Amino acid sequence: MSQPLPDLTHLPQLEVRQLGLREYTRIWEKMRDFTARRDSSTSDELWLVQHPPVFTLGTNGKEHHILNAGYIPVVRTDRGGQVTYHGPGQLIAYLMIDLKRRRWGIRQLVTAMEQSIIDLLAEYQVKGETRHDAPGVYVAGAKIAALGLRVRRGCSYHGLSLNVDMDLTPFERINPCGYEQMEVTSLRELGLNLSTIELELMLPHYIIRNLQQ
Question: How far apart are CA 128 and CA 130, in angstroms?
């Protein structure tokens, strides 16, 4: 006989932290430290941040997908996935979630993250879609949000990035997420004049809602 699912209303709540513009490696170190130190009573956390220009390469990332890094540093990190770009004007949400406590698999978390972006876009009459072969959210075939996660001791870290109002040209220096000539877009490219600050106030609402599904 299977055990009943836990009552999520009694779990520690999600703490939301707005961190501003921070160096990628410093935040990565803090995520790993947080995950290593947490225990079964630790609240889950959502960190909202932007990074100075950086390419990050996942654990199985192939260096040939970096076509010409130029002046932009490359960091090999411990998330899943291939190469992506982070820069100012891109909103990043890092999710430190105790999956074991929720009895979730990583696929459920990925689905919740993608749906959160789709729900947010729908507020602005933008139709976001997923692809079975490439995690993330797309608008008319162009990628607007990328996902990458690591799970350690049953807890996740890393998360998602949403292109809001940023310079997209660095994506031309890579094969985004390992796909040649993948088109990338942003809310600005779609004609939406929104700031990362505005979306920092909205995105947590959708993430929390989808984590409660």
Answer: 7
- Choice among 54, 95, 99, 177 that is catalytic: 177
pLDDT tens digit sequence for 159-182:
999 999 999 999 999 999 999 989
Asked if residue 47 belongs to a domain, the reply is yes
Contact 159, 95 (CB under 8 A): yes
Instruction: With respect to residue 2, please indicate whether it lies within any of the assigned structural domains.
Output: no
Claim: this prediction has a pTM higher than 0.90:
yes
- Residue 114: give its domain's CATH number: 3.30.930.10
**Beta bridge pairs of residue 150:** 157
Q: How many domains does the chain have?
A: 1
Q: Please confirm, yes or no, whether 155 is among the known catalytic residues.
A: no
Residue 3 in domain: no
Query: What is the rounded CA–CA span in Å between residue 104 and residue 100?
Result: 6
Q: How far apart are CA 185 and CA 143, in angstroms?
A: 6
Domain that holds residue 204: 8-211
Residue 14, domain member (yes or no): yes
What is the C-alpha separation between 56 and 194, in angstroms, rounded? Answer: 25
Strand partners, 57: 76, 83
Residue 120 is encoded by which pair of tokens?
């947010």
The dihedral of CA 28, 32, 213, 204: what is its sign? negative
Phi, psi (rounded to 5 degrees) for 77 = -115, 180
Cβ–Cβ < 8 Å for 88, 54:
no
Q: At a CB cut-off of 8 Å and minimum separation 6, what does 173 contact?
A: 55, 66, 67, 68, 69, 70, 72, 85
Q: What's the rounded Cα separation, in Å, for the pair 99 and 114?
A: 17
